[in-house]
Amino acid sequence: MTPPASNRGSLWKGIVIGAALTVAALLFLYWLSSMPNVPGTSRYGSSAIVFIAVFYIGGVQVLWMLPAALVFRAKKQTKSAKGILIAAGLVFLLNAAIFGLFMFGVLRFPGP
Fold it and tell me: Whole-model pTM?
């Protein structure tokens, strides 16, 4: 039996939660990059982990977005779960577009 329409969450609520999770992950990665060394990593410390996670955040975000969407789906708040997945899709597309601009040389890192 499906819950009433008013009890299935909100699409915008899911998008906001998805955006908040992405910002929280980026803040966590920033904090992680400031650590001198993480046990089990190479001599470069945590910088390699952070580089991969930030550059490929579109794919890495599956680690926190998919469980969040599944939690809302289990609570029968399907609209909120859809909003979280929409936010994940938007972050993925934005990441792919910016990565493509760097790969084709339209955007460049500052330096010599």
Answer: 0.76
